[in-house]
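Input record (Table S2, row 329):
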Amino acid sequence: LRTMAKSKFEYVRNFEVDDTCLRNCWIVVRLDGRNFHKFAEQHSFTKPNDDRALNLMTRCAQAVMEELEDIVIAYGQSDEYSFVFQKKSNWFKRRARFAEQHSFTKPNDDRALNLMTRCAQAVMEELEDIVIAYGQSDEYSFVFQKKSNWFKRRASKFMTHVASQFASSYVFYWKDYFQDQTLLYPPGFDGRVILYPSNQNLRDYLSWRQADCHINNLFNTVFWNLVQKGGLTTSQAEEKLRGTLSGDKNEILFSEFNINYNNEPLIHRKGTALVWKKIDEITTKTIKLTNEEKEKEIVVTRTRKKVTALHCDLIGEEFWEEHSEILED
Ligand code: ATP
Ligand code: ATP
Ligand code: MG
Ligand code: MG
Ligand code: MG
Ligand code: MG
Ligand code: MG
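Output record (adenosine-5'-triphosphate complex):
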C-alpha cells in the first residue's frame, strides 16, 4: 500500500528470535498478580477470601477469553489464572481498530500520546532497572540495564510485567486524558523481548524506531492535510502520495498548506524518550530527639530520581553524550 522508505537501521529487526511454540503441545499461560500480598492489604481485601477480588479476576479472565482466540479453558484461584490454548492454535485475530473506535484525532491525538507516556512512566517507576523508554504512535520500548538480575533475567517475566503494568495503567489513567469519553472495551498490548549485544545495536534499535516515527508522521501529516483541508477522499490522498519521496511530501505540505514540516510539534516528529533525571528535593523532616520530648524540624536535601519526558533526536551523538549514564554498566 505505502512505499515505505527503509532506514539503514532496519537490520536490528534480525535480532528478534523465533519463539514459535512447539507443535502439538498444549500452550498454557499462567498469570499471577504482582505483589498481591501488598495489593490485597492496601485495598482491604477480606481474609482469607475476598469474593469481590475473586469475581473481578474471573471477569478479567472472561474478557481475555473473549478478546483472544483459541483459549479452551481457564482456571483461576487466589491472584492467578491459567489459560490453556488449543493445541493447534494458530492465533492471531484482529479486532476493530482501537484508535478508530475511540475517535482519535488524525494524524496525532495528543490525549492518546500523553496517556501512553503516563503509562510508560508508571512502568518505569513500578518496575526495576529500566534505563530509558522510547515511544511513538501505539508503541513503547523499554530498555533494561545490561546487568539487571531482575527475576534472574527470565524473559517472560520482563515481558509480562511490562505489558500488564502498561495495560492496567492505560485503563487506570484513561479518564485523566480522555475526560468523559468512555473507554469502550479493555485494551491490550503485545510485547517481545529482544537482546542487543552491543551499545551500537541498541542505539540503532532506538534510531530505527525514531526513523519509523519520522517516516510515518511525515506521511500521516500530508495524508490528513490532503483529506481534512485539501478535500480529497482517503483513497485519492493514498493515490496522490503513492511513490512520493520525503522531499515531495515536504513540498506538498509547504506549497498546498503553507506548512513547514520542521515546525510541526517535536512530540510528533521525534516521539518521546523517558529517562531518569536526578533532582534535589528539599523537604523538612520532623525528628524526635532521643531521651527528649521535643520534636525538631530539620531541612534535608535528598537526591531523587524522577522520570522525565524528552522529545529530541536520538540518532545523533548529542543525546548520548548528554546522557552517557544510560549506556554505562
Ligand atoms: P508475587 O508477585 O511473587 O506473586 P504475591 O504477593 O502476589 O507475590 P502470591 O504467592 O501470588 O504472592 O500470593 C497472593 C496473595 O494475594 C496472597 O497472600 C493472598 O493473601 C492475596 N490475595 C489474592 N487474592 C485474594 C483474595 N481474593 N482474597 C484475599 N486475599 C487475596
Ligand atoms: P497491531 O495489533 O498489529 O499492532 P494496529 O492496528 O495496532 O495493529 P499499528 O501498525 O500498530 O496497527 O498502528 C497503530 C495505529 O493506531 C495507526 O494506524 C495509528 O493511526 C493509530 N494511532 C496510534 N496512536 C495514535 C495517536 N496518538 N493518534 C492517532 N492515531 C493513533
Ligand atoms: Mg507468586
Ligand atoms: Mg502473586
Ligand atoms: Mg499467587
Ligand atoms: Mg499496534
Ligand atoms: Mg504500532
